[in-house]
Automatic annotation (TrEMBL), chains A, B:
E.C. designation(s): 2.2.1.1
Matching Pfam families: Transket_pyr (PF02779), Transketolase_C_1 (PF22613), Transketolase_N (PF00456)
Species this protein is from: Parasedimentitalea maritima
Domain spans labelled Transketolase-like pyrimidine-binding: 357-528
Top-level taxon: Bacteria
Names of required cofactors: Mg(2+); thiamine diphosphate
Catalysed reactions listed for this entry: D-sedoheptulose 7-phosphate + D-glyceraldehyde 3-phosphate = aldehydo-D-ribose 5-phosphate + D-xylulose 5-phosphate
Gene3D superfamilies linked to this entry: 3.40.50.920, 3.40.50.970
Identification of the protein by name: Transketolase
InterPro entries in UniProt: THDP-binding, Transketo_C/PFOR_II, Transketolase-like_C_2, Transketolase-like_Pyr-bd, Transketolase_bac-like, Transketolase_BS, Transketolase_fam, Transketolase_N
EC main group: transferase
Keyword terms of this UniProt record: Calcium, Magnesium, Metal-binding, Thiamine pyrophosphate, Transferase
Keyword Metal-binding carried by entry: yes
Keyword Ribosomal protein listed: no
Amino acid sequence: MDLTELRTANPEHWAKAAAIRALTLDAVAAANSGHSGMPMGMADVATVLFEKHLKFDASAPKWPDRDRFILSAGHGSMLIYSLLHLCGDAQVTLDQIKNFRQMGALTAGHPENFLLDAVETTTGPLGQGLANAVGFAMAEEMQRAQYGRKIVDHYTYVMAGDGCLMEGISQEAMGLAGRHSLGKLILFWDNNNITIDGTVELSDRTNQVQRFKASGWQVIEIDGHDPVAIDEAITAAKKSKKPSMIACKTHIALGHAAQDTSKGHGALTDADQMKAAKEAYGWTTGPFEVPADIKSQWEAIGSRGAADRAEWEGRFAEVSKQKQDRFNRAYALDTPNKLSAAVKALKKQVSEDQPKVATRKASEMALAVINPIMPETVGGSADLTGSNLTKTGDMGVFDTDNRKGRFVYWGIREHGMAAAMNGMALHGGIRPYSGTFFCFTDYARPSMRLAALSKIPSVFVMTHDSIGVGEDGPTHQPVEHLAICRATPNTYVFRPADAVETAESWEIALSAKETPSVLSLTRQGLPTVRTEHKLSNLTAKGAYVLADAEAKRQVILIATGSEVAIALEAKAKLEAEGIGTRVVSMPCMELFAAQDEAYRRKVLPAGPVRVGIEAAVRAGGWDKWLMGERGQDKKAAFVGMDSFGASAPAGELYEKFGITADATVAKVKDLLG
Amino acid sequence: MDLTELRTANPEHWAKAAAIRALTLDAVAAANSGHSGMPMGMADVATVLFEKHLKFDASAPKWPDRDRFILSAGHGSMLIYSLLHLCGDAQVTLDQIKNFRQMGALTAGHPENFLLDAVETTTGPLGQGLANAVGFAMAEEMQRAQYGRKIVDHYTYVMAGDGCLMEGISQEAMGLAGRHSLGKLILFWDNNNITIDGTVELSDRTNQVQRFKASGWQVIEIDGHDPVAIDEAITAAKKSKKPSMIACKTHIALGHAAQDTSKGHGALTDADQMKAAKEAYGWTTGPFEVPADIKSQWEAIGSRGAADRAEWEGRFAEVSKQKQDRFNRAYALDTPNKLSAAVKALKKQVSEDQPKVATRKASEMALAVINPIMPETVGGSADLTGSNLTKTGDMGVFDTDNRKGRFVYWGIREHGMAAAMNGMALHGGIRPYSGTFFCFTDYARPSMRLAALSKIPSVFVMTHDSIGVGEDGPTHQPVEHLAICRATPNTYVFRPADAVETAESWEIALSAKETPSVLSLTRQGLPTVRTEHKLSNLTAKGAYVLADAEAKRQVILIATGSEVAIALEAKAKLEAEGIGTRVVSMPCMELFAAQDEAYRRKVLPAGPVRVGIEAAVRAGGWDKWLMGERGQDKKAAFVGMDSFGASAPAGELYEKFGITADATVAKVKDLLG
């Protein structure tokens, strides 16, 4: 392709964009790995966006009222690294660019929000950034309504490729954005017609323009290499009341021998071809060298927003101290002072009242106390509001005419919900929690993993957490989902046994700053087992002695959630036969693992036989507690599931699958031999 | 709503549809659980479809050339149970209807393909049936091309609700169907504007008609209670070269007090309201009673296809014996006689050649041998063909002008791919396998669970299975995915160590009839560890002694996949110090667990210390083998991951995370004390 026309039509623009392309080629070649083509294709769009529209200050990447820029096509990470380096971001030095994808570098293969302040969200798994962006834009709407335009007023820009749009999550995200008229959300589609396997037509012939319109979006179609068209499109998009999709017709790996081919998607490292591409760009400096005039033009772009920021700081200083504190506290993810006392009061009350309620109901009781004192919480449900019980009376419903509403009807979109929750949390100022059935963790799984990986304290409220679901049958009965969540690093999995532990779990989940939580809650009613009020949060220990042996201690029963009551029942039967039995409630294995050895040994001393009870598969982390990590504790058994469930009333299923006090007693006796 | 007009306009039709509605009300009331509204809303569509179009024979529900009917909105299971009972299906007796959702009944809460022959696929998790249906329709196209119209020529009908269409998987399925012009796929959209939380507008305002058109579908909009319009729409849809979506405007819970409300979605059990609804229907018989004339009309519908079937059997008898055998063998999921010999020959060759190849490459080598002798295999990749290495030269590419093609470019649609694979397998005659990166198991997870739950032998080829991925970083590096797959009941998880074990794994995966397989394969090259040819399939034992101790046995190292070579290296170091070390390769934990106690004890005798080595989290099923299920084997350790990975060259990551021979030796020495 002859680039002469592009170069000469807008030479100043061209040189700035060429800097992105050249840095990308150099960094990928040095790493001998990565993706050259996307940054080379989208450099023009990015340059115009950063130069003329994006409100940001490279010296303060976390300034709250910045526009957000999200690279959903995360494999094109050199686009964002080039931009940040050129703009003068303090973290992305030239050394970082040279060490792209190397051990310890901040310039990882895909952009990681926990490595670079200016990376709004970790991307790479396709479609996630787009769905995160919907959460960012919702958060902006909510906070603009709450704090006013002077404090919150920014756009969310997201770049997505064909892969993002083919993933199903894109439709969930598009539907949400369209439904809620998120006019400040602007998507650039890198319409280059190339995927890894070949042209897009190989696998897809969707009319994306028509599809976005069907989902309630404005669509603007442009040549993605024409800076004037790009500028006009962004200007028009910013005025729209609907979310905007700017379809940018681009050439992947523009100007390279691999342009417009699937080869162009990957690492372009051939020295001669690189040389030819740079010549076509009119780029004459050596590897990693950016001419000083171009660098200074970029640095001017990077500092363009400093004045905006100063003005914003002035405006922020003028709002009431109370509003400032609330704003700052929420962005810092600090809990309000009142939280601890409120949770204690609730615990005291339920330990006295001893209600027999499902833990999903107990969760609603906790939220009813918490939501009024934590205005930063935003709740929701994937079309199971009356089942998940995540909506409290004071929240209001988020809608086009009620941006202050704090409850979101997500629709039947578990995946989009989880990704948007992550986006809300990353935006700042909001603590999102939302629910679905625990089984449908499966649908939300890719975003739940990303919450853990990228240290986002989203709270996933997963009700109907076992065969206790009953008649809906095995498709709706989780058996492996506790194992899945527990196998995922940096995730708290809470399975509270009653209303007290549920309140304690909520307190921990809403205090976490870098760890997502999964609340595994029952459909069915459970007795209160914590009938003696304790001020301290015992769930924070992960596991604790709920009831100690009366006769000489021969047995430790360890149980979670709905099975703690079964353990207590088994204990009564065993004690009646003179077999001393301790019952340990273990609402959070991760927190128990984090305790010191002395505490763990105090709760689980060597000697007694141990039986774990949980209506789920044993693979859910049990062996460690039943046998000790080095196998030093002998003789253990497990009462739980080793198959999928079945359709029948819940009580009958517990009998059928042998998750009962009698079955527990039998296993204990077998072990005691 | 006054039903008089509907009743009087088409009284014969009305009575048949009313039978479905009445049975639904009665069964849900008896169970005091279930979903009344959907069957009541879609009874007219179903009646017309079954009466006038669906090619089926209730006495032979598995007749291969039947039309397929899939209820994607599986919560409306009483629709399918009513239809089957009324048509005279031998399994769905009146007792089954009366025992809806009870222990042991075939009429489970959601339709289960493993309980009822006439249920084509298990549904309930929304969107799955729709995406399965795409696989069914692809399978029909493929086999029609292969066997000719006289043997294979049928439609796939699927009913979906708003929930199915909101789930992201629907877009993936729609895109595939549109891309491949699956004209014999006909979708009924139960357009009742109600979800559990309220009206659809609460969460969605998508223009579904426009969206389907954008995805390459024909759309027909009708009144879903008008039998003439329904008939005409189906007739038109059958003629279309595009897949058809019939948008059926319906009233959920038609004729009931809860009509057109979200309450109508659930269990309608109020006796007075039931009585009023039945009166509105003109239904005068008692609970579960269907007037004889109506029942006999339905039975005539049920036997309508018997003649079609007889004709088909005549045509089938006329094709060559060879074709008949191939057809019957593929439908029976039997392997060809040649398979075993071919795999043995490949094993012999690679154990002699000892190539250093990635197991994804070894997988390609196995497929190159297998695909030519198993014409029923259909391969594919979610836009990673050159990385997953699932395409062999002889397959051809499935396309509108090559329906015989056996390779599918699925695009960036892991979820839709997995669901369509399940559909293909359930259709019969096809063994689907397809690949993506192991990390993106996350996207495919809901369908992978359903493969296991509903006993579908799909083969998921998951490459790039550890931090061995290298520079792409933690988003692309699985650490918990082996744990996830192993925690799922009825799933074979193979992690072969070299080309020999890879070939063995493929043989088992393609011989399975009721169990899906996950092949966890490396990106990076591995040495051949099975250098001595054995005829028997050692992988089928799950684990075996790869190299026994030379000095006195003090240690057993257990490893999988890429870490087996590390175990061998550690063994060499230990033996050099006189520490006798056995190396056990464990390519499939599930198959090892299925061996008898004597074999397991032979491989893992008590006494020596044990160290497991796997570049993944310990929660992936390890403790059972390290310590014994009852904790009777002491002293164990694990070399693996306990966090997410990082972006850097693969070799450096293995060092960083301590998955090395030296780290293994150190753990052994610590245990030996």
